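=== RUN LOG ===
request id: a7f3
mode: sequence -> structure
chains: 1
length: 335
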Amino acid sequence: MKSEKSKNIYLENILENSPISIIAVDASGKVILWNKAAEKIFGWKQSEIIGKQNPIIPKDRKKEFEELLTKSLKGENVIDFHTVRKCKNGADIHVSISVSAWKDEEGNVIGGIAQMIDITDRVSAEKSLLESQERYKNLFYCIRDAILVADTERNIISCNPAFTEIFGYSSEEIIGKKTLTIYENEEQFLELGKALKEHYGKEPFLYTVNYKRKNGSVFPGETGVFYLRDFKSNVTGFIGLIRDISDRIEAETALKQSEKKYREFFEKDLSGDFLSTIDGKLIDCNPAFLKILGFDSLEDINLHKLHSIYQNKKDRNELIKHLKKNKEISNYEIT
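=== RESULT ===
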């Protein structure tokens, strides 16, 4: 008898001092057990709640509560059921509930007992993670640059629609292949591999190499390389953001050719041509300009200042005045 009493006291201490909220109700839904953890989580004191209908059930969860109670009265167990419960201050919290039958000393089921863990922070974190994943998913699928994801062995594990459009491979064709498949040649593959090793684990970097499409055509690609990391910040792979810069390269080449063409014209022109700042610093001039004015070099003129080539300094001031007003002048005579 004494042993049985000691056992009951022991169990009561466990229930009362458990860090997990433990609540028991009878068959009618009235509270018959409410431990300290329940007081802390939900706000009601034990003295306020014993013998009363369970107040933590939101109106839209009444049917759910009744179904859980019915299962416990039948001796069925419910494990890790996620739902919402209400606190005394009116706030709703997310909880994980495990429910079982509550029995008397003779083993008769007299109600249900529930263990509840507050998982509000976890639910909030999961929601934030899902929202973040959705944002990045939208970015991944909508961005117009090719995105390629590879593991540390440079095996392709994912790509976006823009990649399939630019390179001509379907995702089924390319996933699982070595990234060597998309380079112009092995030399280009090894070149970027060297850059990966040099920057390994550091900040993202840009690199330009030649890539090859499925149809064999080659294009220059500016590649932004980012490192994939696990929760311990270990590198687990790479993300390549590839932009076709063929148009830019063509424009730069055309500009260089144009500059070369006009530089040749500038150098060979028999008229004196020069470029200067408004305040008179000579930036450039052609050989004819030096010859006409009797100077040996651009540096020689700058030693004397551009103003010195005018017989009357007022002439230059008038020239600048006309230039500012009309933006351009021609056949303007000075001595």
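=== NOTES ===
The CA atoms of residues 7 and 179 lie 67 Å apart.
The chain has a mean pLDDT of 87.
=== END ===
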